[in-house]
Amino acid sequence: MTTTVLIIDDDAAFRFAMRKALKRLGYEVQEAASGEEALLILDGDATPDAALLDLRMRGIGGLEVLRRRKGRQVPVIVLTGHGTVETAVEAMRLGAFSFLEKPVDAEVLAPLLNQVVREQGPAAEDKVDERMVGNSPAMRGLREFVSRVSPTDETVCIVGETGTGKEVLAEEIHHCSRRADAPFVAMNAACVPRDLFESELFGHKRGAFTGATGDHQGLFKQADGGTLFIDELGELPLDLQAKLLRALETRRVRAVGATQETEVDVRILAATNRPLWEEVQAGRFREDLYFRLQVFPILIPPLRERKEDIAALVKHLLARVGRHNISLSQDALEALMQHEWPGNIRELLNVLRRASIFAVGETLDGVLIQRMIRASVFGQSERLQAPQVTPLLATESLADVEQAHIRRVLEQEGGNITKAAQVLGIDRRTLQRKLRSLGIS
To answer: What is the value of pTM for the model shown?
Structure first.
């Protein structure tokens, strides 16, 4: 099932850039250029799965949007270039899911959007991305680990390169534990403003600091009875590491501004892509917390070390982006097997997304896959998507090249103008004007 994200911002350039980035990551996108327009969408029947909300807008501002939609089911991530602790706290009090400062990298935003959608409770058959895929020795070892550690309440530290699936493994451990019916709450430490770390983890009391106009329940309390997953653990400040260690050892937390601790029943799963022992030696990570986390350490191998899983992953990931009907030719599979995948499974997913968009027919061939891999490595998808254009420039006009490309996309999408416009990165009306000007019926 495709996730729809509503971008609420009166900055047209920001909406355009964010729309392109989110579409590349496989999201459907809606836009609202004002708070008033956003409320009409949020009040309608076809509501999005999540919303990105700017605070400062002409007319109805972001905080007012939050006030008026309070109690509705659409989760909101606040994005602002004018962030303060006071506005962040007020946004959280009004029900915002998270608060991030601009500029925001879409690759950083994606895990947070995935968490938003997951916590809305999709049906089990839609959770195709939440299962461990592959039958390599490494994956069999991971499954054995999950079967042994899941029934316990021990802390697990998951180590792996970016994009290897650390959160997927954490979800699997939770799913196989006695806490499976309780909350699974995820926090990406790299996405939390430094001033809000303690409040985000442990909560705060009304009046604890300027802008704290109400009590805030931290992630420990939200995960009470269940599992708290802390990703990018190495980003936690040293002073908060000490408080996390105490919470692990005593199972008690104290909200900011509170006078007493409260008991919590939370299992901690942590993840990092950093070598924590090197962080300890550099003085950036507490040695006592390091050894507390090393009771059950687990290393997820990078994709280049388990290439025998690629065929199964391709089938799984194509289903994830809704392209069940697409298959790979033998030379395409060989091209995937030859690549070293520095971005791991996330990079493979992006390659397949791009390839499925530009595929002609229902088979991905080796030439297309190699082009998409080069785009992945060099970040030049706009140049590489149609390399045959360059030699044509000597004999054909730009209009001829544009017309040919639009025809290919329309044919690929079965003549559906709306879908073709989405692939081309323009709106429906713009495409209709181009069709008329180029004489395409």
So the answer is: 0.57
